[in-house]
Amino acid sequence: LTGRWFQNDREVETVPIGDRALHYGDGLFETIAVRSGQPRLLDLHLDRLELGCHRLNIDKRPIATIPDGLQFAIKTAGFDGADCTAKIILSRGEGRRGYAPSAMTQPVLRIGIFERTSYPVEYYRDGIVVSLSKVRLARQPQLAGIKTLNRLEQVLAAAEHAEPGCTERLMMDTEGNLICGTMSNVFLVLGSTVMTPAITHAGICGVMRRHLLRTADKLTIDCEAARIQPEMLQQADEVFVTNSQIGLWPVRACGKLRWRPGPVTRRLMAGLEQAGISECRL
Ligand SMILES: Cc1ncc(COP(=O)(O)O)c(C=O)c1O
């Protein structure tokens, strides 16, 4: 469950007490699906990390070492040619006490390798049940889109009591806009248009969200990133969520609302499968 961790081609089991990731969540992470020994959608994960480094002003040089570091970690952990999950943590590094980062602080990259998590085929075939979380996401444009190590809102939401059978919770921001799931991005199909919340003030720009938008474009399915109120769920013909590990799960219920995995969702799942997301094969 804790995985095996590597830093500069060495296996590590501990973190120095002065690491700013521990004190302030001062860093970024990525969770990458590894299929047949190859990190999937690596270019998109590295792109988001680079954006995160730019926003947080963290030295981005360690990113260049990630492809080789991943190969080493995957092989050493015994997943050469196999499926697993890789987690990358890029910390600003060790520093003195106090918020201000020192110019001396060196970024530290760690790579963790975990067993692959598999999900029931029904999630893909029939859809999942979601609920609306009571936890609201703070609006902070400087942090919106990137995957920082601060995920306390998701921790609170995931710890909420939910009705039995609920697999994911949808989250709103403090202004009541629908933003995302605790671990996923959300999409609503209205007629022939796919809508997804604009990630400008809260939420993470998911790698699978980007891959889906790209796939939809190839399929000439209209997509729009917009401000979405949760009431729009009542008008939605289809709803689904995405992330880089699961691919796409149709949503079949949220409270009293019910949907079926419809034609647009199915076309997108087929498109994603063609574009390397084998989980979407039914
Ligand atoms: C809060 C949140 N939003 C969205 C996502 C989806 O991101 P990705 O598609 O990069 O996995 C995740 C993934 O864990 C997440 O935690």
Can you offer a commentary on this structure?
This protein is of the alpha+beta class and 282 residues long. It is built from 7 helices and 15 strands. Strands 7, 8, 9, 10, 11, 12, 13, 14 and 15 form a 9-stranded mixed sheet that branches. The chain has a 6-stranded antiparallel sheet with strand order 2-1-6-5-3-4. Pyridoxal-5'-phosphate binds next to helix 6 and strand 13.
Brief description of this entry?
The protein is an alpha+beta fold and about 280 residues long. It is about 25% helix and about 30% strand.
| Overall average residue pLDDT | 97
* Strand and helix order: EEHEEHHEEHEHEEEEHEEEEH
Residues in helices, as a percent range: 10-25%
Amino- and carboxy-terminal Cα gap:
28 Å
For the biggest sheet, the summary is: 9 strands, mixed
Beta content = 25-35%
- Which descriptor suits the 3D outline? globular
Bound molecules: pyridoxal-5'-phosphate
Number of helices: 7
What ranges have pLDDT less than 50 throughout 5 or more consecutive residues?
Answer: none
- Estimated radius of gyration: 19 Å
Number of strands: 15
Helix/strand class: alpha+beta
Structural features:
single chain; 282 residues; alpha+beta; nine-stranded mixed β-sheet; six-stranded antiparallel β-sheet; 7 helices; 24% helix; globular; binds pyridoxal-5'-phosphate
